[in-house]
Amino acid sequence: MSFFKRLFSSEKKETLDKGLEKSKESFFDKLSKAVAGKSKVDDDVLDNLEDILITSDVGVNTTLKIINRIEKRVAEDKYLGTDELNKILREEISGLLSETKSGEATEFDVPKDKKPYVIMVVGVNGVGKTTTIGKLAYQFKKAGHNVVLGAADTFRAAAIDQLQIWADRVQVPIVKQQMGSDPASVAFDTLESAVAQNADVVIIDTAGRLHNKVNLMNELTKVKRVMQKVIGDAPHDVMLVLDGSTGQNAFEQAKQFTAATEVSSLAVTKLDGTAKGGVVIGISDQFQIPVKYIGVGEGIEDLQVFNKYEFVDSFFK
């Protein structure tokens, strides 16, 4: 199916276009300099393109895959003009993303056979974790789902307070305890409350400190084990939130968290204020964990379901 048959609403598409503006401008500024004075795609152009993709935070391994694909095209076609490079890049990157698990959905929805559907959110402090939870709660509620939040990041009082602010703003119930409480206890209470309220979606916040892998693994394992006393197969989604503006640091965080727990989806935030939007391509390819949501603005509506076709279309528009 073509890119253009998978369009969001025009308003969402405009937000996505605007959110990726800095990444796009930076990328194509470098690309135009790389092909200046060149009439065809040769080894020099490919070497420059490799540097551009790496410095755009696509990542080394994913960059090499893209370059190899383009080299094959060059070998087959014998002569490729530099004016075709944009089109070729678009096709090869979309082809690469088509092989990943990311970005087929277009709506904020949950499986009908999981009620309540339990999302446990992980990630370091400062990546936009609490904001993502708040915006996600808003979008799920807007889609007609009953949502309950759980403030299981009990390590910081600010985390509980911030989640309370979002719960008030979105007008959804929140379950919380005092700072320093057992996170697993908060998660247990949240699920019991959600079942009693016949909730559709539960979103559990967890501590954002990146302590050593063993402690992180033990804590998250305990939270999951205690949740399963209420709902046998909870959590249904372990979502890792990454700050897209940190580029390669986001890769490192993804490595550490995927080593510590079974991450099943990703949300990449703060793409609107950065030229590092290429990180979504690399993370989606390298970790083979679905990128479900992207943050492309500060507004409450600016958390979007990630659709790879739309993403590539906006990036290369």
From TrEMBL:
It is found in: Cell membrane; Cytoplasm. GTP binds at residues 123-130, 205-209, 269-272. SUPFAM superfamilies: Domain of the SRP/SRP receptor G-proteins, P-loop containing nucleoside triphosphate hydrolases. One of its GO terms (cellular component) is plasma membrane. Residues 290-303 form the SRP54-type proteins GTP-binding domain. Its EC number is 3.6.5.4. Keywords: Cell membrane, Cytoplasm, GTP-binding, Hydrolase, Membrane, Nucleotide-binding, Receptor. It is a peripheral membrane protein. It catalyses: GTP + H2O = GDP + phosphate + H(+). Belongs to the GTP-binding SRP family. FtsY subfamily. Part of the signal recognition particle protein translocation system, which is composed of SRP and FtsY. This is Signal recognition particle receptor FtsY. It comes from Paenimyroides baculatum. The gene is ftsY.
